[in-house]
Amino acid sequence: MQSLQVTDLTEVTKLSRPAVSHHLKILKKAELID
């Protein structure tokens, strides 16, 4: 599986870097991502 960087996700989602980081933190806490 390919690893993505926060900057990759900000480009695709058009969300700010802090917003993407916040959502990733939630997903990681829920153990939906590594």
Write a structural description.
The chain is built from two helices and no strands. The mean pLDDT is 93. The N and C termini lie close together (12 Å). The chain has helices spanning 6-13, 17-29. The chain has 34 residues and is mainly alpha-helical.
List its traits.
mainly alpha; 2 helices; WH-like_DNA-bd_sf; WH_DNA-bd_sf; ArsR family transcriptional regulator; HTH_ArsR_DNA-bd_dom
Brief digest:
The chain is mainly alpha-helical and 34 residues long. Helix content is 62%, strand content 0%. The mean pLDDT is 93.
Low-confidence parts, pLDDT < 50 over ≥5 residues? none
Structural class computed from helices and strand pairing? mainly alpha
Please count the helical segments: 2
Give helix and strand order, one letter per element, not per position: HH
> What is the count of β-strands?
0
Helix share of residues? 55-70%
- N-to-C CA distance: 12 Å
Shape designation: flat
Radius of gyration: 10 Å
What integer is the average pLDDT?
93
Give the biggest sheet: none
Strand content: under 5%
Protein name: ArsR family transcriptional regulator
Domain HTH arsR-type: 1-34
Organism: Enterococcus xiangfangensis
Fold topology:
Elements: H1 6-13, H2 17-29
